[in-house]
Amino acid sequence: MIRRPRAAITGWPVAHSRSPLVHGHWLKKYGLAGDYIRLPVAPEDAERFYRHFGESGLVGCNVTVPHKETAAAACDELDEAARAMGAVNTLWLDGDGRLCGANTDGIGFLGNLDQRAPGWDARPGPAVVLGAGGAARAVVWALRARGFAPVKIFNRTTEKASQLADHFGFGVEAYPWDKLCEHLGQAALLVNTTAAGMTGKPPLQIDLDGLPKDALVTDIIYTPLETDLLRQAAARGNRTVDGLGMLLHQAAPGFERWFGVRPEVDDELRRIVLADLGATT
Ligand code: ATR
Q1: Most buried pick, 68, 114, 119, 125, via CB within 10 A?
Q2: What is the model's pTM?
């Protein structure tokens, strides 16, 4: 008997994850037999869970905070992005039962910009990244993979920006937050990866005056969909891309691994997730 493939979002907590909505939509759209469930994994159980993933009954899973590093350490194989980041968000078992891990957050970031701002990387000049957390790590990896240099990281806590820049080395630089104005003038791209500007968090206070009008501005926040940063940037004529597509695109490679179909990120999926965000935030 062929088992119905089952995948999951794992992390702690997972109650608010939109991944079941995204994968559930694709399973229905492509008429596939399979399930995608929420599976909370308590921090004290995480190491054991990922090390013995074969016993879970899952064909694979997504991994969210705070387990991305623990899961990476449990993998037998990592893709290039996961190796560079030391963190995974997507796991699957290969034919021999070996645990494989990928980090598709950076791919999701690129897929979103490719779809919504075609040609955005034609001039891979200086990029400014705000923030130095896990999301920044994926964005910096993605920008370096597309040839952007220098990638300049600005963070409220400069030390964390320096650590991230050191981690990547060549082509990545760290600066204190208060030096941002001096660097915006050369930027081809501005990315916010901080939590500032998210619903319920303090606003991102930033003066875009020096930013070239042809620079692309993007935020990885998607609640609200149009952050103050994006509104401000659009008002002065900059091209902008919201963060929802990163969430949708990062999900696609896992779906393909587990269920065998490369899913499309289309307007219908965007509408479904937006409606859910509107109902719950
Ligand atoms: P994630 O993994 O989602 O990136 P994180 O690791 O908690 O989350 O990182 C959050 C980022 O948002 C950090 O860069 C944080 O700056 P600090 O390193 O100084 O804490 C940044 N951040 C959060 N709130 C901020 C605010 N009000 N202004 C500027 N930066 C902020």
Answers
A1: 68
A2: 0.96
